[in-house]
Amino acid sequence: MLIGQKTKQNLGVKLKCLAVAVALGISVNAVSPASSAFAKTEEKPKFTIGVVPDIQYCDCDDNGTRFYRNSIDKLMEASQTFNEQDVDFTVQTGDLIDRNISSFSTILPYFNSIEGPKYHLLGNHDFPVTTDQVVDILGMQNQYYDFKYKNWRFIALDTNDLSLYANPVGSEKYQQAQVMYNSLKETGAINAQTWNGGVSEEQLAWLRGVLQKAAQSQEKVVVFSHMPVYPANQHNVWNSEAVMAELEASGNVVAYINGHNHAGNYGYKNGIHYLNLKGMVDTADTNAYSILKVYKDRIEVDGFGRESDRTLTIR
To answer: What are the DSSP calls for the chain, one per residue?
Structure first.
C-alpha cells in the first residue's frame, strides 16, 4: 500500500513539535485542547465529497510520467481514506481507464469498494467503445446528469459529447465535432487537440435549464467535468467560452471541478472557482486525490499526495 505524502508530512510536523516541547522542558500532556482556555470547538462541514481524478488504469508498461498499473494501489489508498473519513459521496472525474475495455472489469471493483453513493464522469480515455456502451458499463443514468444533496445541486457534464473518439464515425455528432475541431485548428487555437471535445447545443440547453431551476430553488451549484474551461490551456473544452457563459449567467455556480490536465490548474473568474485536480496516474509512488469539505461560506479542498490544500470561498 502506498503511503500518501500528506501522511508523511503530518508525521514530520508532529515529531518537530514534540522535539521543541522537550527542548523547552514542556510536558506534552500539560495542556490538552479540552482543558485549554483557548480551545475552540472545531467547525464541522455540512458534508464531504471524495474526488478521484484520472485514475487511468491499464495493465500496460509505464509511459513517461504515467504509471498505469500503480493506479490500483493508489485507488485502494484513496478508497480507504474515504471510508475512514466517511465521505457522503464520491466522484471520479473521468479517465477511469487508459485504453482497453478489459480494464473496466479490473479497476471497477476497487472503485466500488468505496462506501456510499458514487458518481462517474466520462473522460477521453474511457472510449474503447462508444458513449452508450461506456454509460452502460459504468451504470450511469446518462452521459450527463445532475443530482441534489442538502440544497446543493451537482452537475456532471460530458465534455466528450462532440468528439472524434466517443461517437461512431459519420454520425451527426461526429460530423459536428469535425466542424468544431477544424474551425479551431484554422484559427490556431491552443485547445485544437483531438484528445479534447466539445459540448453540444443540446447539452448546453439542458445545462441552462438545470441552472435556472437550481437558482429558483436557491441551490448552490458545483459542476464536475472531465475537461477544464478556464484558464486558457491546451486541454480546454473546444467551446469553453459557451460553457462559461452558461455558468456565469446563472449566478449560483460556486465551482467548476475537473481533471484531464494532469499537472493541475486553478483560476477564478466572475465569482466562480475553476479547479483542475492533478492526475492520480502520474508518478510512480505519489498519490493525488481530494476530500471536499463543504461549509456555509466555503469549500475546503483537503488534498492528498500531490494535490494541494486550498479554500474556495463562496461569494
So the answer is: ----HHHHHHHHHHHHHHHHHHHTT--TTSS-TTT-TT--PPPPPSEEEEEE----B-SS--BTTB-STTHHHHHHHHHHHHHHTT-SEEEE-S-SBSS-THHHHHHHHHHHTS-S-EEE---TTS-SS-HHHHHHHHT-SSSSEEEEETTEEEEE--TTSB-SSSS-TTSHHHHHHHHHHHHHHHHT-TT--TT--B--HHHHHHHHHHHHHHHHTT-EEEEE-SS--SS--TTS-TTHHHHHHHHHHHS-EEEEEE-SSTT-EEEEETTEEEEEPPPTTBSSS--EEEEEEE-SSEEEEEEEETPPPEEEE--
pLDDT of residue 299 exceeding 90, the answer is yes
Q: Give the pLDDT of residue 6.
A: 56
The predicted model gives 81-91 an average pLDDT of 98
pTM over 0.70: yes
The pLDDT of 151-165, averaged and rounded, is 98
